[in-house]
Amino acid sequence: MASSNDDESDSEYVHPRGVPHFPGHERRSNTLPIWGNERTMNLNPLILTNIQTSHYFKTNLSELKTYHEVVDEIYYKVQHLEPWEKGSRKTSGQTGMCGGVRGVGAGGIVSTPYCLLYKLFTLKLTRKQLIGLITHCDSPYIRGLGFMHIRYTQPPADLFGWFQPYLEDEEEIDPKAGGGHPMTIGTMVRQLLTKLDWYDSLFPRIPVPIQINIDRELAKSFPPAQQQRSIQQPEPPVAMGRDQRDWRREERPSRSPPPRRETYPRSRSRSRDRERIRDRSREKDRDSRYRSSRDRDRDRRDRDRGSERDSKKKSSSRQRSRSRDRDQRRRRDDRR
Predict the structure, then answer these.
(1) What's the confidence (pLDDT) of residue 14?
(2) CA distance linking residue 333 with residue 328, whole number of Å
(3) Where is the segment annotated Disordered (predicted)?
(4) Dihedral sign, Cα of residue 168, residue 169, residue 175, residue 176
(5) CA angle (168 as vertex; 163, 172 as ends), nearest 5
């Protein structure tokens, strides 16, 4: 297995694939800066907790003390670059901040690649060692973890300088657990520069001005308009004495006619609808008549009650007046 290219010479470095690293690296210190949180590596808290409590990290990886031992472990154990092992994470029915993209509230079995990625972070890699990872010749997954280490830990202003020599790298890698999502190293590097999502997790956010500069630099080498034209509009074949419309018609796949719906006589359905409408209108009329008759009965009862009360009041007033008259007559008679 190839070594890690951990030389002492720092003057003119050219990695084994023949692509020089970004300009000015030889004038920089061999000690790498750490951007963001120096304790968590800017990992998702759920992923970091699962890594630190996993049996594999606490027992197997604790025995590895050197950079070369960890690289050998990556070579033999890593087959993908997802944060969770296949089938161990269930995110169905979760929305919002607890959804699968955020990686919050629904953990699983943390993957071997992410345990090794955090192990590399604890070793405090030097610049030469990190360059040795991304230029390794034995396994694309060693290179992939090197690029992910850069994405998580290096300052955003330096990201394009790290990734620029590898934007067109043609080595194939499949970062999906279980396979099924092959891509080139160049495609992976461009995805790390332009997207935050990474298989149920998120990379650290790049500041907007730096992201604008990265997109501008990528557009120079990979214009999106040309890529879409090359994908969507293939070159037309040379037509021999025919119009351009002919070959388009010939290349179109023949579409089978849609199945006909069974037709039913419309007269019956219309008559049924009319009868239903009539029945509903009749029921409404009955209800309105019944309500009006009830209202009338209530009004009559109220009137009768009011008239009875008035008559009672009148009779009581007459009786009072009569009793007064009698009393007055008696008093007069007594005086006489």
Answers:
(1) 44
(2) 9
(3) 1-29, 221-336
(4) positive
(5) 100
User: Which residues are registered as beta bridge partners of 110?
Assistant: 84
**Residue 125: both structure tokens together:** 């890699």
Torsion sign across C-alpha atoms 185, 186, 187, 190: positive
In sequence order, what are the residues at sequence separation of 6 or more whose Cβ sits closer than 8 angstroms to the Cβ of residue 255?
Answer: none
Closest CA to 62 of 52, 74, 77, 72: 52
Residue 329: per-residue pLDDT = 82
CA angle 68/72/77 to nearest 5° reads 145
Q: DSSP per residue over 142-210, as a string?
A: HHHHHHHHHHHHS-HHHHHHHHGGGTT---EE--STTS---EEHHHHHHHHHH--B-SSSBPPPPPHHH
CB atoms within 10 A of CB 200: 19
Residue 107, pLDDT score: 67
Contact of 51 with 109, CB cutoff 8 Å:
no
Q: Are strands 183-184 and 172-173 parallel, antiparallel or unpaired?
A: antiparallel
Query: What DSSP string describes 230-244?
Result: HHHSPPPPPPSSS-H
User: Would the CA dihedral through 328, 330, 335, 336 be positive or negative?
Assistant: positive
Which amino acid belongs to residue 94? Q
- Is residue 92 within 8 A of residue 193, CB to CB? The reply is no
Report the pLDDT value the prediction gives residue 222, as an integer from 0 to 100: 82
pTM of the model: 0.60
Which segments in the chain show pLDDT lower than 70?
1-27, 90-107, 224-270, 336
Interior angle at CA 190, CA 187 and CA 192, nearest 5: 110
In this structure, which amino acid lies at residue 232? Q
Instruction: State residue 254's pLDDT score.
Output: 53
pLDDT at residue 90, as a whole number: 65
Task: Dig out the tokens for 194 from the structure.
Answer: 């332009």
**Residue 5 CB-density burial (10 A; 0-12 exposed, 13-18 middle, 19+ buried):** middle
